[in-house]
Amino acid sequence: SHFSMRALNFFSNRVVEIASAPTVFAALDYKNKIYRWNADQMMHEDGNGRVETVEHASQQSGQIFLRLSVGQEFLHVVDELGNLYGWGNNKHGELGTGDCFPRPHLS
Hints:
Elements: E1 15-20, E2 24-29, E3 34-38, E4 52-54, H1 55-61, E5 65-70, E6 74-79, E7 84-88
Antiparallel strand pairs: 1-2, 2-3, 3-4, 5-6, 6-7
């Protein structure tokens, strides 16, 4: 199989953290903006695929995030104080909240 490296042109700022699951990817930029996209969106030849910007996470909370992880239908972030936050589907308890209720926003 042949793979070629190319720049991804959909980040507006310098990326400081990146995470991936089998078909989902996420990135955190230095201005605290979180991006999420899937493998299908990366199939565009020019690298300008459709990328969801997860605005509500950092802008509503006021926290500064240092790390992130991603799963098929959820995200986790760690803030500057070491607090862990997550949101997403939570169908199998992925968020660690003790239940299986979805959390569409940072919690």
